[in-house]
Every structure is written in structure tokens, then in C-alpha cells.
Amino acid sequence: MxxxxxxxxxxxxxxxxxxxxxxxxxxxxxxxxxxxGKIVRIRPLH
Length: 46
Description:
By secondary structure, this protein is an all-beta fold. The chain is built from no helices and four strands. Strand 3 and strand 4 (38-44) form a beta hairpin.
């Protein structure tokens, strides 16, 4: 998991695996953008 924090704000971007089946090995990676602890946007990586 990779975290990117913007200095001076509460925004954070996390790269996660989006698993639809429930097993830990998946190929669907997404960027999850958070602001003040809430999910703002989910962007797929293709």
C-alpha cells in the first residue's frame, strides 16, 4: 500500500487493491483519495 499526503492539508491518496472475489491476490488496483478521513474519489489504474 502506498500513501501520499499533501503537506498543509488533510488530503491523502492511497493505492489499494480492489478485490471483488475475496482472495488477497487481485489485479484491480485503485487510487483512493481521502479528505478529512472521508473517501472523496476512487480512481481505477488501467
